[in-house]
Amino acid sequence: MRRGVCSFVLMAIGIAAVACMEGGSRRSIASAGEPPASNAEVKIDNFSFGPPTVTVAAGTTVTWTNRDDIPHTVVSDDKAFKSKVMDTDEKFSFTFAKPGTYSYFCSVHPKMTGKVVVQ
Amino acid sequence: MTSLSKVFDPQTALLAKHAQHVVLVHFPIALFLTGVAFDWAGRWTRRKALAETAYYNLLVAAASTLPVLVTGLLAWQFQLEGQRLKGILLLHLVLGCTSSLLICAVWWLHFRARRRGAAVSGYLWVVEAAGVAVVGLTGHLGGFLAGVNVG
């Protein structure tokens, strides 16, 4: 009887584990094929934009949040958008209406660069 | 343009955003700290050569504060479009101006003493020590802003 219960529990754990893995792989497949979200987040941390490239649909609002200890800015190469100096935990948002590739950088640290691809 | 030719391209060097400030700032810091060290060594050992060396270090340190201030203010105006500063950037600006004033004041006090043919005032080491502290703090903030602490 006890052996039967143990076998059942182990089987249940195994099924749950397989289901979790399946769900995870399905989620990753779905996220790759999903249309881009209407809001996107970019974190600024350790002198870098993360993710460095975001792909969004036209009309999406991208929000940058400074998680670094020091001030940063977000400035597009073509001056389409430009934030004020953001201190720690401050945010800047911009809505991308037109498709295209928008490269941007931090004007305090020009080596920090990123890209927004609007489809 | 190859990387080597880019290094020696005048346009790249002159339009390297605000990199000039980061490069130039090392001169007044190093010259001032060295000048003060020579001055204190000169007073300790009573060797005139050390005092002379201190004076010329302080002279060039004071002169080099001008391009550092100008490039820093230009970076603020062009890179940040002169927007109202706050936090570390504001503190760096205030301490940078204070450092420049102290460096020039220390040189001027040495210059005045030389012109009068008198020994420098006994209290001058206090001004020099304050200068070293403020310059060190400004440099620390500048390094923090530039990201030299990033591993």
Short summary:
The complex is a heterodimer of chains A (119) and B (151). Chain A contains 1 helix and 8 strands, in the order H-E-E-E-E-E-E-E-E. Chain A is an alpha/beta fold.
Biggest sheet architecture of chain A: 4 strands, mixed
* Domains of chain A (count): 2
Q: What is the CATH homologous superfamily assignment of the largest domain in chain A?
A: Cupredoxins -  blue copper proteins
Specify the overall morphology of chain B: elongated
Helix content of chain B: over 70%
- SS-based class of chain A: alpha/beta
Give the rounded overall mean pLDDT of chain A.
78
Sheet/helix structural class of chain B: mainly alpha
CATH class of the largest domain in chain A: Mainly Beta
Q: Give the chain pair forming the largest contact, with residue counts.
A: A-B, 14 and 16 residues
CATH architecture assignment of the largest domain in chain A: Sandwich
Oligomer: heterodimer
Low-pLDDT segments of chain A: 14-34
Radius of gyration of chain B: 18 Å
Spell out the key features of this protein.
heterodimer; A: 119 residues; alpha/beta; Immunoglobulin-like; 4-stranded mixed β-sheet; 8 strands; 27% helix; B: 151 residues; mainly alpha; 7 helices; 0% strand; elongated
Which helices and strands appear, and what pairs or packs with what?
The complex is a heterodimer of chains A (119) and B (151).
Chain A lengths: L1 H32 L5 E7 L2 E3 L2 E4 L3 E7 L8 E2 L14 E6 L3 E6 L7 E6 L1
Parallel strand pairs in A: 1-4, 3-8
Antiparallel strand pairs in A: 1-2, 4-6, 5-7, 7-8
Chain B lengths: L2 H5 L2 H5 L4 H6 L1 H20 L2 H32 L7 H30 L7 H23 L5
Helix pairs in contact in B: 4-5, 4-7, 5-6, 6-7
Could you walk me through the main structural features you see in this protein, from its secondary elements to its overall organization?
- The complex is a heterodimer of chains A (119) and B (151).
- Chain A has two domains: 1-36, no CATH class; 39-118, Sandwich (Immunoglobulin-like).
- Chain A is 27% helix and 34% strand.
- Chain A is built from one helix and eight strands, in the order αββββββββ.
- Chain A has one helix spanning 2-33, and strands spanning 39-45, 48-50, 53-56, 60-66, 75-76, 91-96, 100-105, 113-118.
- Chain B has one domain (18-145).
- Chain A binds chain B through residues 46-47, 69-71, 73, 82, 84-85, 87, 107-110, and chain B through 17-18, 79-81, 83, 85-89, 144-147, 150.
